[in-house]
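Study both lines:
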Amino acid sequence: MRIGEIAALVGVTPRAVRHYHHIGLLAEPARKANGYRSYSVRDAVLLARIRRLTELGLGLDEVRGVLAGDAGRRLADVLRELDADLARQEQEIRERRLRLAKLVDGPVTGAEPVSPALAELLAAMPVTDSPAAAKDREHLTLLDTAGGGGTGEIYAAMRPLVGDPAVLGLYEELDELAAAAVDDPRVEALAGRMAGLVPAEVLAAIPAEGPVMTGFGEALLAAYSPAQAEVVRRLMAALTVRKRNGRQTS
């Protein structure tokens, strides 16, 4: 196979193949008398492996390490592992399509399709022009999409909370911190009141590993001003302690 043929077969560009040659990720095959490179089936398998690993999120240095571990393995073993990678990706795509189908067939709140459980919760929320409340709705919609089927119990536990008039006051206090400094004394006080308002049923519905400030959580915090983000961070820390203590006493 020539470079254009192997690139088309694997689904990459000839430029990408040349780049992999340049950085030593893919060995450059011997050239024929006519000057063209001649690629083998093993070259194609190796190139497909590189593409699959990069699609899975590995950097090129990490790919290099994986390929080094593949050195000397039988072609059939590498093919089986590549097929397993494809099967896992196919399964992920099927699951995403099923979730999308449920969203498309479900009710629509505003411009975003959401699950029936979240639609019911959002409908129960009081009408307000609070920016903090709007962010909460956006984050719930994101959780609904990313959280799969495990969020319905959390939504049900939150129903009494969204109907509590005190919640609107807390949103307004959070809005007032938009231009405040992180060390503003209102930050700690507000986080404490918010944590105290969360009922035990909501904590019980949160998975055992949460609430935690993962990369996902940190990305959500970026939507707030520094002082507001500090309130949310302290709130999550307080809820984590409450949930841990609840498990220890149960």
About this structure: The longest strand covers residues 108-109.
